[in-house]
Amino acid sequence: MTDNDELLAERRRRSLGPAYRHFFSRPLYLTRGEGVWLFDNDGRKYLDCYNNVASVGHCHPHVVAALHRQASTLNTHTRYLHHAVVEYAEMLAATLPGDLSVCMFVCTGSEANDLAYQIARAVTGNDGAITTSGAYHGNTTLVTELSPDSGRRRPAPDYIVDVEAPYTYRGTFGAGHADYENAYADLVDAAIDTLRERGKAPAMMIIDNIFDAHGILTPGPAYHQAVYRKVRAAGGLMVADEVQSGLCRLGEHYWAFEDVDVIPDIVTMGKPLGDGHPLAAVVTTPDIAAAFANTQHYFNTFGGNPVSTAVGRAVLEVIANENILANVGATGRYLKGGLDELAARHELVGEVRGKGLFLGVELVTDRADRTPATDAARRVVEHMRESGVLIASTGAHSNVLKFRPPMVFRKEHADLVLAALDEALTETV
Amino acid sequence: MTDNDELLAERRRRSLGPAYRHFFSRPLYLTRGEGVWLFDNDGRKYLDCYNNVASVGHCHPHVVAALHRQASTLNTHTRYLHHAVVEYAEMLAATLPGDLSVCMFVCTGSEANDLAYQIARAVTGNDGAITTSGAYHGNTTLVTELSPDSGRRRPAPDYIVDVEAPYTYRGTFGAGHADYENAYADLVDAAIDTLRERGKAPAMMIIDNIFDAHGILTPGPAYHQAVYRKVRAAGGLMVADEVQSGLCRLGEHYWAFEDVDVIPDIVTMGKPLGDGHPLAAVVTTPDIAAAFANTQHYFNTFGGNPVSTAVGRAVLEVIANENILANVGATGRYLKGGLDELAARHELVGEVRGKGLFLGVELVTDRADRTPATDAARRVVEHMRESGVLIASTGAHSNVLKFRPPMVFRKEHADLVLAALDEALTETV
């Protein structure tokens, strides 16, 4: 950082306050982005292996052109008829299976998850909510309560119950357990019982299908299917939070829940939809949408405006035109293969997890004890930044390296990541 | 509507569901906007006397250029250092009095009000909230509870108490009451007592300074100052919801609370900040920001991103360069004078209220009984639409015509509105 950067950082501290944090001990001052590349104010180039919001690449020209065209023409809201929101809703619904065909537009994943709860509560007549213990689902007052590890600062309100996530590397049931997926799913029974003891029943259970904040987990169909059966039998809806895992991110389908053969009642979407533009959505069935509309109208000033939906459409067009899904699958397998190979050579690596272009490498100081290597993870992240590759860490112990690049990432980019990681792991012992 | 419009409306019903509503019985299909003008798909021109989101005019070229320039260059988030968010925060803080100098950026007014509650709760250690009975503050789960008339569908949770708003035309205390402002303010004592009986104290009271959903009210300094004293004496913070009333809308100052000589602890801002772009903010003092940061970090993926803040800055530049504040004052006085003149001639008009370019005309079927003329208001709105002028209605009875145009509205536009309203009132008896 130059003196000027330090001055800007100080102005930032004063004008944004201390609740805002930086990535990296030495703040990174980025000034330009293009595809998978970011550039700092000295013109230095960084390979972006972290940012999923720029889903189809930084400043994608097709998306920027759509934004500019519509912003120059009209930007109002959904109280007027407009083709952009209808066309985008239809295109989005076409990516989804089953009856998931009704879209309600909001601006952020937090708003989407908050609205999902309002819908579930209105439709089921219940007010309970089940969430996983390490989850992050967003930052409204309600959604913070659904985010046990990151936001909640007090005992959960009595209508929210946490269940342990299926984290075989550290959790109650290891991968060696004969039927660990059902064993984890059975924990949902206890959550439903807890609600019942309080005179309540679940309106919904919410699951982030890549369990990002938990350190990236991918339980199979048996887990999800059992959980869906239990929650529905207790009168609740299943909400798939696809803010992190959705829109081709896992490389097999558009949506992560498709990988595990379930169909949620409500799907929430956010970050990647607008390639950086604030656009998010709740998608549900006509029956649920109708039952919700019987209890209340819904309006979101900016949600579904012509500009945001023109941008959303442009992102879907890029995904189709550039074969993004296939690229995520192929590049993801290649990168994961390389991470597995590094794991075989570096004692620091406890486990490699994830799918598509959402991969995690859990670092441990000791493979037998599985002691979280939190400090080493921090040093690896900083070392890679110095090598020109941006990643971050996740999990309760911040010891899981997270690889989640724009989905236009190619094998040659994966090679750069693997070389930088090899060096960082070698030098961080 | 053509057959094609009807087809689009039907596709909309299927893809967005029945919770979405239209303005007007015959949906208006808008396709282009420019300044104070909107154009439908037949090329018909409408004078926009309703939309405050397009605060400095539809598709303002300076704002669109800033959006395009930054979206072509970089769009990330506040975990990296960037000048745009810092510069915008400083410019925004410079419009505010006192210690209101720390900005936290979100995407919607709902998120802003939701965050204000989280801050107030964290800083005061209390969890009570006081709101006015007819208020609308947004649509998150928490903020819906703070919006008694529009969203709340069940008894309020025990930590929220409503107080009657100072609506002299219909409320407990009329304008003829010797000291109606203090009489209304005294109702806050009862709300604080109610919280106390429940073992609680106020974290905050939230006030929309133009009382939009109540039918547009402008109590004077005595009301606000007394309320501020009472809430603060009980340990709570004062939150000014300036989503509707702020950013020069009332024509005297940038922020409506300045008109009544109070300084809030927290100011929330939304709709007009981005001239259509999803941009919102919470502004508070360094002390409150520091106390909040002691309890939690804050991050909003899209909030404060380089594109949104470049747009926000462009809007502030337009406001300064085009003398928007003076224009709102002058055009607002002129329009209100015209409305007063129509009130003298049309029995339907019970009262003309408001300030700047946020004016209300309450319609009554009978001036003595003050019976709300809900159906007449609907017909006036529809009639004006046919005359090419867009307005809407507000208030608990939807009988208050609302005039709230883009702030580049001029006297010649006001003349068109007054002529159309004169005709609509004449034909709607």
Q: Please indicate the percent range of residues of chain A in DSSP E strands (runs of 2 or more).
A: 15-25%
CATH architecture of the largest domain in chain A: 3-Layer(aba) Sandwich
Order of helices and strands of chain A: HEEEHHEHEHEHEHEHEEHHHEEEHEEEH
Q: Which segments of chain A are poorly predicted (pLDDT under 50) over 5 or more consecutive residues?
A: none
Largest interface summary: A-B, 96 and 95 residues
Q: What share of residues of chain A is helical?
A: 25-40%
Separate helix tally of chain A:
13
**Highest CATH level, the class of the largest domain in chain A:** Alpha Beta
The CATH homologous superfamily of the largest domain in chain A corresponds to Type I PLP-dependent aspartate aminotransferase-like (Major domain)
**Oligomeric form of this entry?**
homodimer
Strand order of the largest sheet of chain A: 4-10-9-8-7-5-6
Q: Structural class, from helix and strand content of chain A?
A: alpha/beta
Shape of chain A: globular
How many domains make up the 3D coordinates of chain A?
A: 2
The value of Rg of chain A in angstroms is: 21 Å
